[in-house]
Amino acid sequence: MTDVLARMGLVRMSARDTGAAHRVSTPLELLFDLVFVVAVSQASQNLHHLISEDHVGQGVLAYLMVFFAIWWAWMNFTWFASAFDTDDWLYRVLTIVQMGGVLVLAAGVHDAMVEFDFLVVTWGYVIMRLAMVAQWLRAAASDPESRSTALRMALGVAVVQVLWVARIYLLDDVAQFWTFFVLVVLELLVPVWGEAPGRTAWHPHHIAERYGLFTLLLLGESLLASANAIIDALGEGEHVPELVTLAISGIVVTAGIWWVYFSREQQHRLEGRKSAFRFGYLHYVIFAAVGAVSAGVEVEIDEITGHTEIPHAIAGLALTLPIAIVVAGSWVVLLRASLSRWASAAVLAGAVLIALAGLLPSGEYVVAAALLVGVVVVLEVDRVRREATPVH
């Protein structure tokens, strides 16, 4: 078998060493992430436009629905790659097929969010997921120890994809809307059922790094939005002080989110099956909120320049709520176990105050940025105190 694979230029796909040293992201994984950022950018831009046009409820709901497809496909590939990455030509081809699916999905984001027409998004998603079915079948054929889990994953993913396609072609618009959430639940249950015989051999440090890198790419969207504020200020020659202040606040917010997210080591939260599921699934909230921050900055630009007629509070909350959710989500997923009680209380209080800052009559982005700096200070003071406390 090994000789046959070698003649074909392939490597036997077997579970990797979960304790291997120096396990880092591959160039292919980094390229994969960049393609996903295209889809996230489309979702963020459409969220911005829908909020500015006073379709807030539709914009938020559609964004969360589209973001699920983006996040779930990314997450499933990431955990599979951590366990079975062979980096041979077949693995690369199937990964590139998934990238193509991402681009198809990105092309359908506008119709999905504006008209709730999920046809193109569904096909892009199904392309990505069926490529994963092929990867799981290859793992089942190559690795006897992982065969039961791999076959379950392949079967579960394949069945749900059939249901996604059937939903589009057989149901009316109302039924399509409600069955979306039913199929989301089924998607979330597939890994739980699939790994019942035994978990796949993902690498804790590698997974933590992959999640961190994706967070950085999402933060890049916020930096781009801040740059847009400066470009608009220089280009139009109007509202310069307000736009420059917003841009500076946006940079501070981006740096603050980065500081909060990376303030503690994360791989030790991935040592058990339950903790790994909690880490992986709850990141949907963090990722979606980080992706929405850039939309909030763009909405604030529209509000400052008079390109929207939405109430000032809506524009403010469009920015401050995602920031607050990132802080609270990071506390739940990443920080809670490593903080003292006073620090935890201060971080959560900071998240609430950041959210409420959106209701201020003016300067909400400055206040939100300042409060986020305060959260960072709390985390660093708590770190220093803990390191200075003798361990008995």
UniProtKB/TrEMBL annotation:
Segments crossing the lipid bilayer: 20-40, 60-77, 89-110, 116-137, 149-169, 175-193, 213-231, 243-261, 281-301, 313-335, 342-359, 365-381
Any Pfam family matching the protein: LtrA
Record's keyword terms, sorted: Membrane, Transmembrane, Transmembrane helix
Coiled coil: none
Family matches, as InterPro entries: Low_temperature_requirement_A
UniProt cross-references to PANTHER family, sorted A to Z: BLL5714 PROTEIN
Name of the molecule in the record: Bacterial low temperature requirement A protein (LtrA)
Species per Swiss-Prot/TrEMBL record: Microbacterium trichothecenolyticum
Classification of source organism: Bacteria, Bacillati, Actinomycetota, Actinomycetes, Micrococcales
